[in-house]
Design a protein that fits this description.
The chain has about 500 residues and is α/β, with parallel strands linked by helices. The protein is built from 22 helices and 18 strands. A hairpin with a 5-residue loop joins strand 6 and strand 7.
């Protein structure tokens, strides 16, 4: 008897419907075709054990299974349930009346329990698009898939539950969540708050500017000065996610299998902090079967690279193009996938190998030239993509011991949101440009005119401080953001002066 069931293959951040054709006839042996990988081929043993342990019969006949389209590689153990239900339906142990209405996916344990799968959200989106009535999947993924409305989400704990549901013996209530209500309830649930930070008002100001214009920022300071503490609080002052951004971010985490059990829509901006031993593929994505990397997992959020010079240079260099394009393309011999990569880069580093160059109290013990050599581990083109360089100094004892609480993240966020609204209005006629950091050279000329006295300040800064030519555009972008925070239509001299202050690593005397 020939029966068809339906599953789905995840390709990038999208899904493709897979038709599983099961034919059982006289004979012996088991044939699985349609470009399955080893994990799919191994499903025979899991299915056989799961059927036996649930008092179901494994047919002692010739079983031929085709997974179409046959030119798409099928990966992973998530097809176990699709294949098992197909075998049971073809051997007339399961009614096939409902099979064409549902996408069925799930990994089987040997006792028939259903284990979580990757990409439940993107599969549900594709199922609705293809007109399926519902999606049968492990209960641990039900809330994730239920983000998609107008699709019946049947979360099951075991193979036996799925069989009884399809045979009409039990009724499983579809999982329903109020996506908007849950999303807006958890929109401001941040673990860290700027109110916890003692002192460092100048660094908070720099991060506020970075958040307002979506500028990349690097923090340079000695150990224990608070670089990581400050960076972790940056997402709490970024504008809240909208539903579209939340869906984009959740799709990527779903594909990567990072959502966890019973997770739903991501409601806060992600903060990713990979270790400096990370590989190229780990950072930008890749592998034999391409998976999203840390830059994609940081979509619409913050990527924090602590101890920046300790990262392998090759790892940092592959990040340059995605920073510009806000997209990473991973190409293989037979196909290529694209993952979004729109993130804010926040980097932190010690000023020298010993960590105490420019420290007000502790002398630097590095040999001559070591400081510059340490800085040279970071390439010029990468630094060129970082708008704000901030020197972080240790917090004085009187600030640490003081009882005065710092400004709350919610208060800072209001100013950031107001500045972003100004930028949205400014760039409404420019597709894919949303903030000052994304301005092109042509747009800088249009939106960043400066008065004659400002030109004089900028010229003096370039000459006296030895600022590089690449710093010029960056200063204008940052000064435009500072003016937006000040609700000023024009860039004033004080805005320029503050922007110049945030170019520490461009000064000729740095590290000499």
């Amino acid at each position: 008897m020939l029966v068809k069931t339906y599953g789905s293959a995840v390709v990038g951040v999208n899904a493709l419907t897979i038709t599983v054709e099961v034919d059982i006839e006289a004979g012996v042996n088991f044939f699985l075709v349609g470009l399955p990988d080893n994990a799919v081929k191994e499903s025979q043993q899991r299915i056989e054990a799961a059927l036996y342990n649930n008092d179901l019969k494994y047919p002692g006949k010739k079983i031929v299974i085709n997974m179409a389209p046959a030119d798409i590689r099928k990966e992973g153990s998530a097809y176990d349930l699709t294949l098992a239900i197909g075998i049971l339906a073809a051997s007339e142990q399961v009614r096939n009346a409902l099979l064409e209405q549902y996408i069925i996916m799930g990994e089987l344990s040997l006792d028939g329990e259903l284990k979580p799968i990757k990409g439940a959200l993107v599969i549900a989106i594709e199922a609705r698009k293809q007109g399926f009535k519902g999606f049968i999947l492990p209960a641990a993924n039900a809330r994730e898939a239920a983000i998609v409305n107008d699709l019946e989400i049947i979360g099951a704990e075991s193979l036996r539950q799925v069989v009884d549901f399809l045979n009409g013996k039990i009724k499983i209530e579809p999982t329903v969540i109020n996506t908007r209500e849950e999303f807006y309830q958890r929109l401001n649930e941040y673990e860290y708050d700027f109110a916890d930070v003692k002192g460092q008002e100048n660094i908070k100001r720099a991060l506020e500017i970075a958040a307002a214009g979506s500028h990349n920022v690097i923090l340079i300071g000695p150990p224990g000065s608070g670089k990581t503490m400050l960076a972790r609080r940056l997402p709490s002052i970024l504008p809240p996610l909208n539903l579209q951004e939340a869906l984009e971010t959740t799709k990527i985490h779903s594909v990567a299998g990072r959502l966890g059990r019973n997770a739903s829509l991501i409601s806060v901006r992600p903060f990713r902090a990979p270790h400096h031993t990370i590989s190229d593929a780990g950072l930008v994505g890749g592998g034999t079967f391409p998976q999203p990397g840390e830059i994609s997992l940081a979509q619409n959020g913050v990527l924090f690279l602590d101890e920046l010079p300790e990262f392998k240079r090759s790892v940092l260099e592959v990040m340059r193009q995605p920073m510009e394009d806000r997209l990473v393309t991973i190409s293989r011999a037979k196909h290529s996938v694209e993952y979004p990569a729109s993130f804010m880069l926040v980097a932190a580093m010690n000023p020298c190998p010993c960590g105490y160059y420019n420290h007000p109290d502790i002398p630097c013990t590095c040999a001559p030239g070591q400081v510059q050599k340490y800085l040279n581990r970071i390439s010029g083109p990468l630094l060129d993509r970082i708008d704000i360089h901030v020197e972080v100094t240790p917090v004085p004892f009187k600030d640490l011991a003081g009882q005065r609480e710092g400004e709350k993240s919610a208060v800072i966020r209001k100013r950031v949101v107001a500045a972003r609204k100004i930028q949205e209005e400014r760039f409404k006629n420019f597709p894919n440009i949303y903030c000052n950091a994304q301005m092109t050279s042509k747009m800088i000329k249009t939106f960043c005119p400066i008065p004659s006295e400002g030109q004089t300040i900028l010229r003096i800064a370039m000459e006296k401080l030895g600022l590089s030519a690449r710093a010029y555009d960056r200063i204008l972008k940052v000064s435009r953001t500072i003016a937006d925070l000040d609700d000023s239509p024009q860039i004033k001299t004080e805005h320029l002066a503050e922007a110049i202050h945030y170019r520490s690593l461009d000064r000729e005397n740095w590290g000499k």
